[in-house]
Amino acid sequence: MNLHEFQAKALLREYVIPVPAGEVADSVASAVAAAQRMGGNDWVVKVQAHAGGRGKVGGVKRVNTVSAVEQFARQWLGQRLVTVQTGAAGIPVNQVLIEAPLRIQRELYLSVLVDREHERVMMIASSAGGMDIEEVARTTPEKILTAVIDPLVGVQAYQCR
Description:
Blueprint: H1 5-14, E1 22-25, H2 28-38, E2 43-47, E3 60-63, H3 66-76, E4 80-81, E5 91-92, E6 96-99, E7 109-115, E8 120-126, H4 133-139, E9 144-149, H5 157-160
Helix pairs in contact: 2-3
């Protein structure tokens, strides 16, 4: 299952887990309208694509004018995002997420993925944040915790702790 960031945040919202206020847009006009509806003069705009490294190539940006939201949407919508994870061909950008910025006190990383080798779901977590998780794995692997989930019993409380 591939979820875009806005889809994952919608699921978190359903379970009353706090996430930033935001709206997804699939056109320049809807991106501008979203920023105007949200109000204020500070937003984070994010390319929605199934790839890590978006921020490193300009696909995540903090802006402080509606015209900057418009410029970001115009730059990215209909284009291809190329990151280390996508390869040279990149992947299409059909949506952007416009969010209210938050003051970050602490960044954590959590991933749930299919471990094909073990034919199980695996959870990976780190208190070192997620911006450079590949680098964390390479240089300080002890900062990454993994748990293989048994499909018969699911995630156990001790694994979450």
